[in-house]
Amino acid sequence: MYDTLVIGAGPAGMTAALYAARSNLKVGLLEQGAPGGQMNNTADIENYPGFDLISGPELSMKMFDPLEKLGVEHLYGIVTTIQDLGQSKLVKTMDGEFEAKTVILATGAKHRLLQVPGEDTYASRGVSYCAVCDGAFFRDQDLLVVGGGDSAVEEALFLTRFAKSVTIVHRRDQLRAQKLLQDRALANEKINFIWDSVVKEIKGNDVKVTSVDIENVKTGQVTNHAFAGVFIYIGLDPVSQMVADLQMTDDNGWIPTDDKMATKVPGIFAIGDVRQKDLRQITTAVGDGATAGISAYHYLTEHN
After folding, report:
1. Which of 3, 134, 273, 288 is catalytic?
2. Which residues, in sequence order, are CB contacts of 205 under 8 Å at separation 6+?
C-alpha cells in the first residue's frame, strides 16, 4: 500500500514524487519506459530556468537522481485500468496490481496521427514522430515536417543539422509557433514552406518513403513531392484510457482539475500534459507536479 502512486515519470511525475516524498509519504513512481518521458526525445532545451542549454536526457536524469535518495520506489508497468475503492485506489497493470491511498496521473500525451494512406505502412521506414530519434538516419536527404506549432518548428530546425533540406507543410498561411522559433525557421536557408496545404498520402517502394501527395486546401490541387522522410507534429492526444470507466475526462480525453490538481474523483490528481490546460511545457509540468505532491499530502492528512 502506497500513500501516493505517481503514474508517469516525465517532469510532472518526477516533481510530484519529489514533493510527496519530501512530505514523508511512501511513494511509488510507475513508468513504462525510461524516466523523463518525452523529454528524452528532445535534443536541446533552451527554455527551462537555470540552463542556457541542456539536453532532454540530461535534464531527465537530473530530475530523477534525487528521487532514489528520498526512497521513491521506481516501478515498471503498463497501466490498464484504475479502480476507485473509496479509501484506496487499485491500479492494474499488464503484469500486476498496486494499491495506493492516492494516485497522481502524469501519463502525458502521445503524438496525433495523420491517418492518411501510407502512414502506417511506412512507420519506422521514413515516417517518424521523433526527429531526435531518427534525424541522423536522413543525412543529406530532403525531408518533410508536418505541422506549424512549436514542436514542428523545433524539430525542423533540429533536422537541418543532418538533412539536405527540410520543408514544413502547414494547413494555414502562417506558423503557430512562438515568434523566436518562427524567426529562426524563416531565416534558415535549409527550411522551405508549403502553406495552406495538408498531406493526402505518403508513398514509397517496398523499402522506404519516396514521395508525398500534398493538397492545397484553398484550391484543391494535389501535387506530388519527393521526400525521403516525413516527420509528423500535428498535435497531441491524452493518454487517459486507463480512467475511462471513472468518467473523469472531457469529451476529448483530457482530465479537468481544480487549482490543487484534484480531479472529480477524490484522491486522484492529474498533472502535466494529460491535464486539461492551454500550455504544455516542461515548466508548467513541474509546477503541476509540485502542487499535486503537496495536495496529496494534505488530502491524506485530512482523511486519516
Report:
1. 134
2. none
pTM: 0.82
pLDDT tens digits, residue range 127-164? 999 888 889 999 999 999 999 999 899 999 999 999 99
Q: Of the listed 130, 142, 196, 237, which one is catalytic?
A: 130
Contacts of 102 (CB under 8 A, 6+ apart): 3, 4, 5, 89, 267, 268, 269, 296, 299, 300
Q: Which amino acid is at 248?
A: M
Cell numbers that stand for 151 in this block: 514542436
What are the C-alpha distances in Å from 160 to residues 101, 107, 138, 190, 245?
48, 31, 10, 6, 44
How far apart are alpha carbons 68 and 286 in whole angstroms?
A: 18
Domain boundaries, the chain: 2-110+236-303, 127-232
Q: Indicate if 127-232 has the same CATH topology as 2-110+236-303.
A: yes
- Please state the CATH superfamily assignment of the domain spanning residues 2-110+236-303 in this structure: FAD/NAD(P)-binding domain (3.50.50.60)
**Positions in the chain short of pLDDT 70:** none
**Residue among 95, 120, 133, 183 flagged as catalytic:** 133
Q: Is 44 among the residues known to form the active site?
A: no
Q: 127-232 domain in CATH 2.120.10.70?
A: no
Q: Give the closest residue to 235 by CA, choosing from 247, 215, 256, 252.
A: 252
Radius of gyration of the chain from Cα atoms? 21
Taking the chain, what is the end-to-end CA distance rounded to the nearest angstrom?
Answer: 14
245 tagged catalytic: no
Measured in whole angstroms, the distance separating CA 64 from the mean position of its chain's CA atoms is: 18
CA-to-CA dists, residue 143 to 121, 241, 293, angstroms: 18, 33, 42
Annotation marks residue 134 as catalytic: yes
Q: What are the φ/ψ torsions at residue 48 (nearest 5 degrees)?
A: -105, 125
